[in-house]
Design a protein that fits this description.
mainly alpha; Rhopdopsin 7-helix transmembrane proteins; 3 domains; three-stranded antiparallel beta sheet; two-stranded antiparallel sheet; ANF_lig-bd_rcpt; GPCR_3_mtglu_rcpt; G-protein coupled receptors family 3 profile domain-containing protein
């Protein structure tokens, strides 16, 4: 029978099976007959219901059945027209379709190729890409942003602090970054601070060892020790700033950052203010200015520092220290202290005022007697400090999105400020005490330095002639300076003048 007749035959058999099933259900099977209930013929709706439920094997050996819509389930054989080895051509079955496709790819033959050629309009998109349809069936794969994931063939951005997972199907928490101690950005300020701490401790040791010598006494020992403590704190603050943020380190940084600077500049301010008052007063009268004794100077400096300390403590009470994460870039989280830029600036305003006042007094005292070298060193220190801070401010506030540069620039600003003070104000004294001891003598002291300097004449310290008597009269009660020479038998002081107590340096 031709294949074209299989379908009409199967249709007749389907109707026959449906009628057979109706007779069985309505009339029974013993005996099987067409009963009066179905005469003259089964109703159409009833026959259609049974027809949709028939199931039998058709003429082609396939199952014949229908779905709820009355359509027959497809059953197809798939053939390929192939050439046989003997040169003849024929159809070869390579697969079937019975509710799903089944292919025997080993039977397929392709011209000039061994692999099965692709028959698709577009390849599936890789992870992290979405389909941008060009028509109903074809598309172009478009990559999502680095901080986005794929959801229902659309790109969705992750929340701050989160990033897409490896498959770009969801978001995961990003690990917050902190500055590692072996980071090259961190090593530079750490090494700088370590060298500065060792240098400061060495300077303190030299001052303690030669505490009673003229050069150290004439430099205002008490304020020098206050200033050295401030320099040491500035160097030490780098380790606090670079440490992993915590509530404790954040509290220390907020108080210590302004406090260490105020210790340095309060000492310099007190020193320059004293110099200015003494020399300005000495021109008009020989009466001693008030609050020029060493103890008074220390009390004034500590009073200036206490203002910064009280402000820092009040700030801690109002805004409790804490840590937070900031997100300067996508997929970047940085752990830092919770402090606003405005609050940080306000904590440094007091020190900015001190720096300006110190610079002003250093400028005012620039024309004091030539042999008063320390005033010039103070002036150079403050001019350099102003340059450092003028460079720091735009760097810090101009790099809001680069946490590393901000932190490192703050550490280097503290280190350089401390180094300028240490180098300009203390290096000349330490050098003189250690390498030029023959200059570290009182005026008129005839004692010679042993060793190779035995034949060297005693060094005489130079002072201003016309005003030295005024300077001695207004500062004669200071404990930080050598006293006047011995008196003669008649009670008059010796003609040999001793060094002035106004923080003189040896020229």
């Amino acid at each position: 029978m031709p294949i074209s007749l299989f379908f009409p035959v199967d249709a007749v058999y389907a109707a026959a099976h449906a009628i057979h099933n109706i007779i069985q259900d309505e009339c029974g099977t013993d005996p099987f007959y067409f009963c009066d209930e179905l005469k003259p013929a089964p109703l159409g709706p009833q026959l259609l219901k049974y027809l949709r439920n028939v199931s039998f094997i058709g003429r082609q050996g396939t199952e014949i059945r229908f779905n709820a819509d009355g359509d027959a389930f497809g059953s197809y054989n798939i053939y390929q027209y192939q050439r046989h080895p003997d040169g003849k051509y024929d159809y070869i079955q390579i697969g079937t379709w019975k509710e799903m496709l089944e292919m025997n790819l080993s039977k397929l033959q392709w011209k000039d190729v061994d692999d099965t050629p692709k028959s698709v309009c577009s390849d599936p998109c890789p992870s992290g890409h979405i389909k941008n349809y060009q028509d109903q069936c074809c598309w172009v794969c478009v990559s999502c942003r680095e901080d986005a994931y794929v959801y229902n063939d659309t790109c969705r951005s992750c929340s701050p602090g989160y990033g897409p997972n490896a498959n770009k199907t969801g978001c995961v928490k990003i690990k917050a970054l902190i500055l590692e101690w072996l980071n090259p950005w961190v090593l530079v300020p750490v090494v700088f601070s370590s060298i500065g701490i060792l240098s400061t401790l060495f300077t303190i040791a030299v001052f303690i060892r030669y505490n009673k010598t003229p050069v150290i006494m004439a430099s205002g020992r008490e304020l020098c020790y206050v200033l050295l403590c401030g320099v040491l704190c500035c160097y030490s603050m780098s380790f606090v700033i670079l440490a992993k943020p915590s509530v404790e380190t954040c509290a220390v940084m907020r108080v210590g950052l302004g406090l260490c600077l105020s210790v340095c500049y309060s000492a310099i301010f007190t020193k320059t203010n004293r110099i200015s008052r003494i020399f300005n007063r000495g021109v008009k009268t020989i009466k001693r200015p008030i609050y020029t004794s060493p103890i008074s100077q220390v009390v004034i400096a500590l009073g200036i520092v206490s203002i910064q300390l009280i402000g820092g403590i009040v700030w801690l009470v109002i805004e409790r220290p804490d840590i937070r994460e900031i997100y300067p870039y996508p997929l970047t989280a940085v752990l830092t202290c919770r402090v606003s830029t405005f609050s940080l600036v306000m904590s440094l305003v007091y020190n900015m005022i001190l720096i300006i006042m110190c610079t002003w007094y250093a400028f005012k005292t620039r024309k004091i007697p030539e042999n008063f070298n320390e005033a010039k060193y103070i002036g150079f220190t403050m001019y350099s400090t102003c340059i450092v801070w003028l460079a720091f401010l735009p760097i810090y506030f101009g790099t809001n999105n680069d946490y590393t540069i901000q932190i490192v620039s703050m550490c280097m600003c503290l280190n350089i400020s401390a180094t300028v003070a240490l180098g300009c104000l203390f290096t000349p004294k330490v050098y003189l005490v250690l390498f030029q001891p023959y200059k570290n003598v009182r005026q008129g002291n005839g004692c010679q330095i042993g060793g190779a300097d035995r034949n060297r004449p005693a060094y005489s310290m130079r002072f201003t002639g016309p005003k030295s008597q005024t300077m001695q009269s207004v500062t004669s009660n200071s404990k930080s300076s050598p006293r006047l020479g011995p008196k003669h038998a008649n009670g008059d002081p010796s003609n040999v003048r001793n060094p002035s107590v106004v923080e003189s340096s040896v020229s």
